[in-house]
Structures are given as structure tokens and as C-alpha cells.
Amino acid sequence: MIQLPCPWCGPRNVSEFRYAGEVTPRPQPATATPEQWRRYLYVRRNPRGWTEENWYHSAGCRQFFKLRRDTDSNAVEEPR
Amino acid sequence: MAGGNNGPSNGHPSTNGHRKPGKPPRYSAFSLLKHGLAPRAEWPRAWRSPALQPSYDVVIIGGGVHGLATAYYLAANHGITNVAVLDKGYLGGGGSGRNTAILRSNYLTPEGVRFYDRSMRLYEHLAADLNFNVMFSRRGHLTLAHNDSSLRTMRWRAEVNKLQGVDSEVIGPEEIAKLVPYLDTSTSTRYPILGALYHPPGGIIRHDAVVWGYARGADSLGVHLHQNTEVTGIDVAEDRVIGVRTNRGRIATRNVVNCTAGWSSVISDMAGVELPVQTSPLQAAVTEPVRPFLDTVVVSGTLHVYVSQTDRGELVFGASVDPFTSYSMRGSLEFVEGLAGHVLELMPALSKMRLLRQWAGLCDMTPDYSPIMGATPVDGFYVDVGWGTYGFKAGPVSGEAMAECVATQRTPEIIAAFHPGRFETGQLVGEKGAAAVGH
Ligand SMILES: Cc1cc2nc3c(=O)[nH]c(=O)nc-3n(C[C@H](O)[C@H](O)[C@H](O)COP(=O)(O)OP(=O)(O)OC[C@H]3O[C@@H](n4cnc5c(N)ncnc54)[C@H](O)[C@@H]3O)c2cc1C
Ligand SMILES: [Zn+2]
Q1: Which of B270, B326, B363 to mutate to test the interface with A (most CBs of A within 10 A)?
Q2: The pairing of beta strand B58-61 with beta strand B83-86
Q3: What is the pLDDT of residue B9?
Q4: CATH architecture of B137-201+279-365
Q5: CB of B93 sitting under 6 A from ligand 1
Q6: Burial label, A25 (beta-carbon count in 10 A; 0-12, 13-18, 19+)
Q7: What is residue A52's three-state secondary structure?
Q8: Please, which of A11, B207, B270, B346 could form a disulfide with B234 given CB 3.0 to 4.6 Å?
Q9: Which of A19, A47, A74 sits opposite B323 (nearest CB)?
Q10: From CA B199, how far away is CA B166, in angstroms rounded?
Q11: Model confidence at B23, in pLDDT bands (50, 70, 90)?
Q12: How many CB atoms lie within 10 A of CB B9?
């Protein structure tokens, strides 16, 4: 089991967290075209390597946080 | 041109048994007998190891069932034989050698049902077509419903299936108990079984044999198979593919087909094509062999588990994808722990079974659980991806359709709904209800 460093709780088993996806810039809901909005909904970089993502500590402090993780090795960067 | 031996190692440790292009010796009871009796007879290798050529008409990236079937049908149906299949490892080293080999066509959308049904029909006579025993075993496939909403989805699927001429019906607990001995159909369990979608044509197959059969068939028609050949870049000029770069040199080509499943984003990135794909590991496990007792495939969406028994007697267990994206294929203890608990809820009698091993493969998940197939905005760059957890059964129909797509430069009707542009226009082909746990 890999562990993730929650900025509030420290290192915890990944089973305590919920993966909330890659960090992607959100278009303005009021002005975005349907195409821009669908691109935001569906397209992912899905890189093999380091990426920034959102996680939710559902079985802990129940806070969202950003994390940098290497999708190839599952290594994670300590929060700054 | 072929049969050369001057390239780097391509997965075949010895040069023993290299053949000139042409028909491979047929496999038959007679050839088996002949070889068995001949002193020190070696079987010729099932496919050649040709030298890498500086150019090909079509380069297929990925030597799984999709890449190999596409190559085979390009040659067999369209006479296009100047084709290379490149794999960074060995043929079948990706999902095609790691799946749990379930074949079925009881999907949810008319587009899906029609498509997978065509694949089942091709699988029916694949052993004869390829002269390779693929051990297709039709044994019936059951998707259990433990609550009203899944029972409703089963009824829906059964009706869509019937309209497409696919045999599926909803059955009750008594009938399920008759079909599946040792299944706990009592009402005292945590999630009692209310009914099931029964799909008699479903079954399992020997996945490696399918891969090897297509490889041998494609090779005999002149296709070049290159193992240990990793694509590192794709050259695009004025929105058209002109070549691919590999760890063994550059290849000029005007047609590239991306058949890399779990790695498909990495390859599409090289051509500058965006995909709505996320890669997640999917794990499975197998037990020691026991006497045959289970001759159906049983899937439970609620319990996130499915089970079948191989011809050797092992029980194969699978589940849904891991809960986060990754390109790592390491198995995890929490997976087997959870799996074992769910299996025992279904079949308490299995509590003494011992697991032999567990493994993982990569799945390229799409937002609608349907594949992404066809031409892309980059001329000559085709995709056959988004195979998620369910793509093995689609190998034959995908190969047939992608070959036609590349050869005629038109999208065949049967894959029209799966075109890459559907996410922009919002025309999704939602199969989650039929593909999230049962692969
Ligand atoms: C545990 C598990 C159970 C499954 N169960 C089922 C099931 O029961 N039924 C079903 O229908 N499907 C199932 N699937 C899904 C199925 O395995 C896949 O959808 C299918 O095998 C995909 O085949 P493919 O040929 O597209 O890709 P793959 O077989 O994954 O082949 C892709 C190939 O691309 C190669 N490659 C990657 N990058 C490069 C590069 N840069 N250069 C050259 N080559 C490269 C890889 O080495 C690999 O061999 C399961 C998957 C898993 C993991
Ligand atoms: Zn926390």
C-alpha cells in the first residue's frame, strides 16, 4: 500500500483518500463554449511521469489538497 | 528482404528455425504425430524475425490483440502486406496477455451490442481461420443483480440485446442456483441475489493463443513483427504523419495506427493528438487448480468481483480497476484482501482455496466506457484505443474495422459511433452500466 502525505494529517495509507483527478484549469462557466466545457470535462493529459492532482482525505480530515505524484513509480512529493 | 538476421535481438533468443516468408507448416493431428515421432524434431518458429526496414506502408504500434488483428486483416482482407507491428516488449506483454479472457456481447447500447456481437461471430471460427486452437469455450455468462436498480439495468440490457438478435434474458434465483452450484443464493446474505442477466453465448478463451494465432497468421501473409522495438517519437509535417522514431532507428511511413491501450496517451501525445483517456491498473488473481465445478462465468457488480474456472481447473478472479490512475503494474495486498472477502460472500465453500498468484495490467479508461476508434485530425494517424477493462473480446472486430478504415480511408459503419470527435459534440456511447465490473 502506498502512503500519501496529507498536509494536515501527515502520511496516511492511500485507502483513506479519494482520487479527485488531474489538476486542469477550469474555464469560466458563464462564458465557456460547449466545446471548451466538454474539453475540460473529458480531455486528460494522463502523463506517464510527474503530474499534479487533487486528492480528498475522505477517511481523515475531509479536506481537498493538491499533490505531485509520479504515475510511473507512484512516488509522491512532500507538500511544501 | 526478410529472414535477415542483422538487426538487434527481437525477442527470439536463437535464430533456430527461421523461415522464409510464405505459408507456415499447418498445425494438425497429423503434423503433431509426425513431429512426435521424428527424432529431435524442433517445431519451426511460429513467426519470423525479419530485419527492420527503413519504410513501411503502415506501421502499427502495439503488439497486442488489437495491433496484430489489424495487421492480419490488412493483409488478409485488403492485400496490404508491407506492414510492421512494433512492440516495446514482447507480443502479448500488455493487456492482451494479462486479461481474464471473458467474451460476451450483452452490452447496453445498440451500437455496443452490434459491435461486440460481430466480434463474437469472428471468434466462433477464428481457430479454423488461423489454424490455431484458441480454445474458445462458450459456457454462459451471468451478471448477478443484488438490488432493484441493477435488476432494472439487466432488464434493459436484455431487451436491447434481444432487439439485436443477441441471446440474453433475466432469470431468478432458483434458476441461478441450478446453473451455479456453490453460489450462496440464500436470503440471509448481506446482499441477497435477486436475479441475473443470463447470456448463454458468453464464455472464455485462451488469450495467449489468440495473440499467437494472429501473429502467426499476419507473419505468414508477409507482415513484419518487431519485438523489443519501442516507439520514441512520431514525425508529423503539415498535419500529416511522415514517420516514426524508435530505439532501433527511424521508419518512414504515412500511416500509423496507435494500438497501445494503457500507453495510448503517451503515443498520441507524440503525434500531438489529445485523448479523453486515463490509465488505471486492473488486477486479477488465480487459484491453484481444483476439479471442474463451475462451467459459467459469474459477475457481481455490487460485490465488485467475478469468477470463472479455466480448463486447467484454476479459478480466475477479477474486479474493477484500482481507485486511482497509474502506469505501475505492481499488485497490492489490499486488492487480494478485498477480493477474497467478496469471493467468499458469493461462494463461502471456497474458503480453503489457495491463491497461486496475482497480477495487474494497464487499462485506458474513457469517460463513456466505449472505445475511441478511427482517423484523427492528424492525417495518417489512426487510433484504436480506449479499451479499458473490456477490449480483449473486441480484438477481431476492431482489427477488421481498423484495417478497412486504413485501407479505404473511410470509417466503417460498425465503428462510426466510436469516433474520436464524439466527446466534443457530446455524443457519448454510455456503456458504464454494462462494463464497469464485468469485463
Ligand atoms: C486484469 C485484466 C483483466 C481483463 N479482463 C478482460 C476480459 O475479461 N475481457 C475483455 O474483453 N477484456 C479484458 N481486459 C482488457 C483487455 O486486456 C484489453 O482491453 C486488451 O487486451 C487491449 O488490447 P490491445 O491490443 O489494445 O493492447 P495491449 O495488449 O495492452 O497491447 C499494447 C502493447 O503496446 C505496447 N507498447 C506500449 N508503448 C509502446 C511504445 N512506445 N512502443 C512500442 N510498443 C508499445 C505494449 O508493450 C503492449 O504490448 C482485462 C484487462 C486486465 C488488465
Ligand atoms: Zn488529512
Answers
A1: B326
A2: parallel
A3: 37
A4: 2-Layer Sandwich (3.30)
A5: yes
A6: exposed
A7: strand
A8: B270
A9: A19
A10: 8
A11: low
A12: 9
Question: Domain B55-136+202-277+367-439 classified CATH 3.50.50.60?
Answer: yes
Q: Pick B31 or B422 by higher pLDDT.
A: B422
ipTM of this predicted structure = 0.96
Whole-angstrom Cα distance, residue B371 to residue B417? 9
Decide: A57 and A63 in contact? Cβ < 8 Å: yes
Which segment of A7-16, B20-29, B178-187 scores lowest on mean pLDDT? B20-29
B37 C-alpha to center of ligand 2: Å?
A: 69
Kindly list the residues from chain B whose CB atom is less than 8 angstroms away from the CB atom of residue A35: 424
Domain ranges for chain B, please list them: 55-136+202-277+367-439, 137-201+279-365
Q: Is B153 helix (H, G, I), strand (E, B) or coil?
A: helix
Query: For residue B381, what is its C-alpha cell?
Result: 494517424
Q: Domain A3-70: which CATH class? A: alpha beta
B92: Cβ–Cβ under 8 A, 6 or more apart, which residues? Answer: B63, B64, B65, B207, B208, B211, B212
Q: What is the pTM of this model?
A: 0.95
Instruction: Specify the DSSP element, H or E, that contains B256.
Output: strand B256-258
Pairing of strands B224-226, B231-237: unpaired
Q: DSSP 3-state assignment of B133? A: coil
Given a contact cutoff of 8 angstroms between Cβ atoms, the answer to whether B385 and B423 are in contact is no
Distance of CA B73 to the CA centre of its chain: 16
Query: What are the C-alpha distances in Å from A61 to residues A7, A79, B150?
Result: 10, 16, 33
- What ranges do the domains of chain A cover? 3-70
| Nearest-atom index, ligand 1, CA of B362 | 53
**What number does the ligand 1 atom closest to the CA of B62 have?**
34
DSSP line for B306-358: EEEE-TTS-EEEE-PPPSS--S-----HHHHHHHHHHHHHH-GGGGG--EEEE
B2 has a pLDDT exceeding 90: no
Q: Is the pLDDT of residue B65 over 50?
A: yes
Residue with cell 439495468: B153
Q: Distance between CA A17 and CA B270 in Å, rounded?
A: 32
Q: Is the dihedral of CA B319, B322, B326, B329 positive or negative?
A: negative
Tens digit of each residue's pLDDT (9 = 90 or more) over B167-201: 999 999 999 999 999 999 999 999 999 999 999 99
Q: Residue B25 Cα, ligand 2 centroid: separation in angstroms?
A: 63
DSSP B225-250: EESS--EEEEEEETTEEEEEEETTEE
For residue B384, give the nearest of B410, B403, B408 by alpha carbon.
B403
In the block, cell 482455496 appears at B353
C-alpha distances in Å from residue B247, one per residue of B173, B176, B207, B226, B236: 56, 53, 28, 12, 18
